[in-house]
Design goal:
Elements (H helix, E strand, L loop, with lengths): L1 E4 L3 E6 L8 E5 L5 E6 L4 H16 L8 H9 L8 H35 L2 H11 L4
Parallel strand pairs: 2-4
Antiparallel strand pairs: 1-2, 3-4
């Protein structure tokens, strides 16, 4: 059994009798915590178990009641919601892009109309057929 101690957290590596579980956190009467880590785990798993236990301590999970919810959020960390200003800025960017694209479309439509009105393709094709490339 190995014992590592800090002022607020005691860490104990020990063989778990049932060989099940990675760690257990116990709040002490003096406000500190004891983390029991399964010594049967490899070093990386022991570190993960320690980090998991510390996340319970730093998140004040011992003040909460629903263990299933606590474990769910411990294994599926949720991100804080993004500020609404990010979405408002993105909407403004998209609106500006839409206006720019509308202007380009209008310009291209005018070009197409000009070509349709002033360039008689049938006339050009007929002239090419009859006289070749000399226009």
């Amino acid at each position: 059994m190995v014992i590592l101690t800090t002022p607020d957290v005691n860490v104990v590596l020990m063989d778990f009798p049932s060989k099940k579980g990675n760690e257990m956190v116990v709040p002490n009467e003096d406000g500190s915590y004891t983390i029991l880590i399964n010594a049967g785990l490899n070093y990386e798993s022991q570190l993960k178990a320690y980090e998991h236990a510390m996340s319970h301590i730093t998140n004040d999970d011992f003040l909460k009641g629903n263990v299933q919810e606590i474990e769910y959020y411990a294994h599926h960390p949720h991100k804080d919601p993004e500020p609404a200003q990010i979405y408002l800025d993105r909407i403004k960017q998209l609106q500006a892009e839409r206006r720019r694209l509308k202007k380009l479309i209008a310009r291209d439509q005018k070009r197409v109309e000009f070509i349709q009105e002033h360039c008689d393709m049938f006339h050009r094709a007929e002239h090419h057929y009859l006289y070749g490339d000399d226009l």
